[in-house]
Amino acid sequence: MKNNSLILGGLLSALVVIAALVSFLWVPFDITQLSIPDKLQTPNEVHWLGTDHFGRDILSMIMIGARTSLAVAILAVGIGFFIGVPLGLAAATKKNSLLDETIMRTNDLIFAFPSLVIAILITALFGAGAMNAIIAIGIFNIPVFARVSRGAALSLWQKEFILAARVSGKSDLRISAEHIFPNIANLLIVQGTIQFSLGILAEAGLSYVGLGTQPPVPSWGRMLADAQTMVSFAPHLAIIPGSAIIVTVLGLNLMGDGLRDLLDPRVRRSRE
Hints:
Largest sheet: none
CATH superfamily: MetI-like
Distance between the termini: 7 Å
Structural class: mainly alpha
Number of helices: 10
Number of domains: 1
Strand content: under 5%
Number of strands: 0
Radius of gyration: 22 Å
CATH class: Mainly Alpha
Shape: elongated
CATH architecture: Orthogonal Bundle
Protein backbone atom coordinates (compact mmCIF):
# COMPACT_ATOMS: atom_id res chain seq x y z
CA MET A 1 0.00 0.00 0.00
CA LYS A 2 1.31 3.45 -0.90
CA ASN A 3 2.42 5.67 1.93
CA ASN A 4 0.52 8.80 0.85
CA SER A 5 1.47 10.78 3.95
CA LEU A 6 5.16 10.24 3.33
CA ILE A 7 4.88 11.16 -0.37
CA LEU A 8 2.84 14.32 0.22
CA GLY A 9 4.91 15.35 3.23
CA GLY A 10 8.12 14.74 1.32
CA LEU A 11 6.93 16.86 -1.62
CA LEU A 12 5.90 19.78 0.58
CA SER A 13 9.12 19.61 2.58
CA ALA A 14 11.20 19.31 -0.59
CA LEU A 15 9.53 22.45 -1.98
CA VAL A 16 10.66 24.45 1.06
CA VAL A 17 14.16 22.96 1.03
CA ILE A 18 14.59 23.71 -2.68
CA ALA A 19 13.47 27.32 -2.15
CA ALA A 20 16.00 27.66 0.68
CA LEU A 21 18.84 26.15 -1.35
CA VAL A 22 18.08 28.22 -4.45
CA SER A 23 18.14 31.39 -2.31
CA PHE A 24 21.88 30.86 -1.72
CA LEU A 25 22.47 31.26 -5.46
CA TRP A 26 19.62 33.43 -6.72
CA VAL A 27 16.61 35.44 -5.61
CA PRO A 28 14.38 37.49 -7.92
CA PHE A 29 15.21 40.82 -6.24
CA ASP A 30 17.74 42.21 -3.77
CA ILE A 31 15.86 42.48 -0.47
CA THR A 32 18.32 45.03 0.93
CA GLN A 33 17.20 47.59 -1.65
CA LEU A 34 14.10 49.58 -0.71
CA SER A 35 11.71 50.80 -3.38
CA ILE A 36 9.01 52.93 -1.79
CA PRO A 37 7.21 53.67 -5.12
CA ASP A 38 6.65 49.90 -5.49
CA LYS A 39 5.32 49.34 -1.96
CA LEU A 40 2.29 47.18 -1.14
CA GLN A 41 1.84 45.79 -4.64
CA THR A 42 -0.39 42.76 -4.95
CA PRO A 43 0.93 39.70 -6.83
CA ASN A 44 1.68 40.60 -10.45
CA GLU A 45 3.85 39.55 -13.38
CA VAL A 46 6.92 41.32 -12.00
CA HIS A 47 6.55 40.58 -8.30
CA TRP A 48 4.88 37.17 -8.24
CA LEU A 49 3.89 37.41 -4.58
CA GLY A 50 3.70 41.19 -4.38
CA THR A 51 5.78 43.63 -2.33
CA ASP A 52 5.82 44.73 1.30
CA HIS A 53 5.52 48.22 2.81
CA PHE A 54 9.14 48.99 1.86
CA GLY A 55 8.73 47.81 -1.72
CA ARG A 56 10.75 44.64 -1.17
CA ASP A 57 9.87 41.53 -3.18
CA ILE A 58 7.94 39.08 -0.97
CA LEU A 59 8.96 35.99 -2.97
CA SER A 60 12.63 36.82 -2.35
CA MET A 61 11.94 37.33 1.35
CA ILE A 62 10.03 34.03 1.57
CA MET A 63 12.94 32.17 -0.06
CA ILE A 64 15.53 33.65 2.30
CA GLY A 65 13.12 33.23 5.22
CA ALA A 66 12.92 29.52 4.41
CA ARG A 67 16.70 29.34 4.69
CA THR A 68 16.57 31.08 8.06
CA SER A 69 13.80 28.89 9.47
CA LEU A 70 15.40 25.64 8.31
CA ALA A 71 18.83 26.61 9.64
CA VAL A 72 17.47 27.49 13.08
CA ALA A 73 15.35 24.31 13.24
CA ILE A 74 18.18 22.01 12.08
CA LEU A 75 20.66 23.37 14.61
CA ALA A 76 18.10 23.39 17.44
CA VAL A 77 17.06 19.79 16.76
CA GLY A 78 20.74 18.85 16.47
CA ILE A 79 21.40 20.25 19.95
CA GLY A 80 18.47 18.29 21.35
CA PHE A 81 19.47 15.08 19.57
CA PHE A 82 23.19 15.01 20.32
CA ILE A 83 22.71 15.92 23.99
CA GLY A 84 19.33 14.34 24.75
CA VAL A 85 19.89 10.90 23.23
CA PRO A 86 23.11 10.12 25.16
CA LEU A 87 21.43 11.33 28.36
CA GLY A 88 18.42 9.10 27.71
CA LEU A 89 20.59 6.08 26.94
CA ALA A 90 22.65 6.71 30.07
CA ALA A 91 19.51 6.97 32.19
CA ALA A 92 18.19 3.68 30.76
CA THR A 93 21.52 1.99 31.46
CA LYS A 94 21.37 2.97 35.14
CA LYS A 95 17.64 2.58 35.74
CA ASN A 96 16.43 3.89 39.14
CA SER A 97 19.93 5.07 40.03
CA LEU A 98 20.88 8.58 41.13
CA LEU A 99 21.97 9.34 37.56
CA ASP A 100 18.58 8.23 36.17
CA GLU A 101 16.64 10.25 38.74
CA THR A 102 18.77 13.35 38.20
CA ILE A 103 18.34 13.27 34.42
CA MET A 104 14.60 12.59 34.49
CA ARG A 105 13.77 15.10 37.24
CA THR A 106 15.73 17.76 35.36
CA ASN A 107 13.66 16.89 32.30
CA ASP A 108 10.49 17.26 34.35
CA LEU A 109 11.65 20.67 35.53
CA ILE A 110 12.16 21.87 31.95
CA PHE A 111 8.79 20.43 30.90
CA ALA A 112 7.09 22.34 33.75
CA PHE A 113 7.49 25.53 31.71
CA PRO A 114 6.00 26.09 28.24
CA SER A 115 8.69 25.87 25.58
CA LEU A 116 7.97 29.29 24.11
CA VAL A 117 8.15 30.90 27.56
CA ILE A 118 11.60 29.34 28.15
CA ALA A 119 12.73 30.52 24.72
CA ILE A 120 11.48 34.07 25.39
CA LEU A 121 13.19 34.07 28.80
CA ILE A 122 16.55 32.95 27.39
CA THR A 123 16.50 35.38 24.48
CA ALA A 124 15.38 38.21 26.77
CA LEU A 125 18.29 37.50 29.15
CA PHE A 126 21.04 37.00 26.58
CA GLY A 127 19.74 39.21 23.79
CA ALA A 128 17.66 38.79 20.66
CA GLY A 129 19.20 36.99 17.72
CA ALA A 130 19.21 33.79 15.72
CA MET A 131 21.95 32.10 17.77
CA ASN A 132 20.19 32.66 21.09
CA ALA A 133 16.94 31.45 19.51
CA ILE A 134 18.72 28.26 18.43
CA ILE A 135 20.04 27.68 21.95
CA ALA A 136 16.64 28.39 23.50
CA ILE A 137 14.77 26.00 21.19
CA GLY A 138 17.53 23.40 21.48
CA ILE A 139 17.36 23.36 25.28
CA PHE A 140 13.71 22.34 25.16
CA ASN A 141 14.49 19.61 22.62
CA ILE A 142 16.98 17.93 24.99
CA PRO A 143 14.41 16.44 27.44
CA VAL A 144 12.17 15.37 24.54
CA PHE A 145 14.88 13.22 22.97
CA ALA A 146 16.07 12.05 26.39
CA ARG A 147 12.61 10.76 27.30
CA VAL A 148 12.00 9.08 23.95
CA SER A 149 15.40 7.34 23.92
CA ARG A 150 15.15 6.28 27.58
CA GLY A 151 11.64 4.85 27.20
CA ALA A 152 12.56 2.92 24.06
CA ALA A 153 15.87 1.70 25.50
CA LEU A 154 14.36 0.39 28.75
CA SER A 155 12.29 -2.21 26.93
CA LEU A 156 15.33 -3.37 24.96
CA TRP A 157 17.56 -3.94 27.98
CA GLN A 158 15.42 -6.98 28.90
CA LYS A 159 15.75 -8.60 25.48
CA GLU A 160 17.72 -11.79 25.05
CA PHE A 161 20.22 -10.38 22.56
CA ILE A 162 21.13 -7.63 25.07
CA LEU A 163 21.57 -10.22 27.83
CA ALA A 164 23.78 -12.22 25.48
CA ALA A 165 25.88 -9.12 24.77
CA ARG A 166 26.30 -8.59 28.51
CA VAL A 167 27.37 -12.18 29.05
CA SER A 168 29.94 -11.79 26.29
CA GLY A 169 31.59 -9.08 28.35
CA LYS A 170 30.54 -5.94 26.47
CA SER A 171 30.30 -2.76 28.52
CA ASP A 172 27.04 -0.84 28.94
CA LEU A 173 28.41 1.96 26.78
CA ARG A 174 29.28 -0.42 23.95
CA ILE A 175 25.91 -2.18 24.18
CA SER A 176 24.11 1.18 24.02
CA ALA A 177 26.10 2.23 20.96
CA GLU A 178 26.09 -1.08 19.05
CA HIS A 179 22.72 -2.60 19.95
CA ILE A 180 20.37 -0.14 21.68
CA PHE A 181 20.82 2.93 19.50
CA PRO A 182 20.36 1.18 16.11
CA ASN A 183 17.12 -0.37 17.37
CA ILE A 184 15.61 2.93 18.50
CA ALA A 185 16.83 5.00 15.54
CA ASN A 186 13.46 4.74 13.78
CA LEU A 187 11.69 6.32 16.76
CA LEU A 188 14.29 9.07 16.95
CA ILE A 189 13.92 9.86 13.25
CA VAL A 190 10.15 10.25 13.60
CA GLN A 191 10.56 12.37 16.73
CA GLY A 192 13.15 14.45 14.92
CA THR A 193 10.70 15.41 12.16
CA ILE A 194 8.12 16.41 14.78
CA GLN A 195 10.64 18.52 16.70
CA PHE A 196 11.81 20.02 13.42
CA SER A 197 8.32 21.34 12.69
CA LEU A 198 7.98 22.60 16.28
CA GLY A 199 11.34 24.32 15.91
CA ILE A 200 10.13 26.22 12.85
CA LEU A 201 7.01 27.30 14.76
CA ALA A 202 9.11 28.37 17.74
CA GLU A 203 11.49 30.38 15.53
CA ALA A 204 8.53 32.10 13.88
CA GLY A 205 7.04 32.86 17.30
CA LEU A 206 10.28 34.33 18.64
CA SER A 207 10.77 36.43 15.50
CA TYR A 208 7.16 37.59 15.73
CA VAL A 209 7.80 39.12 19.17
CA GLY A 210 11.17 40.50 18.07
CA LEU A 211 13.43 38.01 19.88
CA GLY A 212 14.40 35.77 16.96
CA THR A 213 16.19 36.53 13.71
CA GLN A 214 16.92 40.25 13.50
CA PRO A 215 16.54 42.59 10.50
CA PRO A 216 17.66 42.90 7.79
CA VAL A 217 17.63 39.09 7.58
CA PRO A 218 14.06 38.07 6.63
CA SER A 219 12.07 35.75 8.86
CA TRP A 220 8.55 34.45 8.36
CA GLY A 221 7.62 35.42 11.92
CA ARG A 222 8.99 38.93 11.47
CA MET A 223 7.04 39.27 8.22
CA LEU A 224 3.85 38.37 10.08
CA ALA A 225 4.64 40.92 12.79
CA ASP A 226 5.23 43.65 10.21
CA ALA A 227 1.97 42.78 8.46
CA GLN A 228 -0.34 42.85 11.47
CA THR A 229 -1.16 46.57 11.14
CA MET A 230 -1.74 46.31 7.38
CA VAL A 231 -3.92 43.22 7.11
CA SER A 232 -7.07 45.23 6.39
CA PHE A 233 -5.73 46.80 3.17
CA ALA A 234 -2.85 44.43 2.25
CA PRO A 235 -3.86 40.93 3.42
CA HIS A 236 -1.26 39.25 1.22
CA LEU A 237 1.47 40.49 3.58
CA ALA A 238 0.16 38.12 6.27
CA ILE A 239 -1.35 35.37 4.13
CA ILE A 240 1.86 34.55 2.24
CA PRO A 241 4.30 34.07 5.18
CA GLY A 242 1.52 32.39 7.16
CA SER A 243 0.96 29.97 4.30
CA ALA A 244 4.70 29.27 4.12
CA ILE A 245 4.71 28.29 7.80
CA ILE A 246 1.60 26.13 7.37
CA VAL A 247 3.00 24.32 4.31
CA THR A 248 6.34 23.63 6.01
CA VAL A 249 4.87 22.39 9.29
CA LEU A 250 2.20 20.33 7.52
CA GLY A 251 4.80 18.75 5.24
CA LEU A 252 7.06 17.81 8.14
CA ASN A 253 4.19 16.38 10.21
CA LEU A 254 2.93 14.32 7.28
CA MET A 255 6.45 13.10 6.61
CA GLY A 256 6.79 12.15 10.28
CA ASP A 257 3.57 10.13 10.14
CA GLY A 258 4.72 8.48 6.93
CA LEU A 259 8.12 7.60 8.37
CA ARG A 260 6.47 6.13 11.45
CA ASP A 261 4.30 3.92 9.25
CA LEU A 262 7.31 2.93 7.17
CA LEU A 263 9.77 2.26 9.99
CA ASP A 264 7.53 0.84 12.74
CA PRO A 265 6.80 -2.81 11.91
CA ARG A 266 3.81 -2.93 14.28
CA VAL A 267 2.04 -0.05 12.54
CA ARG A 268 2.99 -1.46 9.14
CA ARG A 269 1.55 -4.89 9.94
CA SER A 270 -1.70 -3.42 11.30
CA ARG A 271 -2.31 -1.58 8.01
CA GLU A 272 -1.51 -4.48 5.72
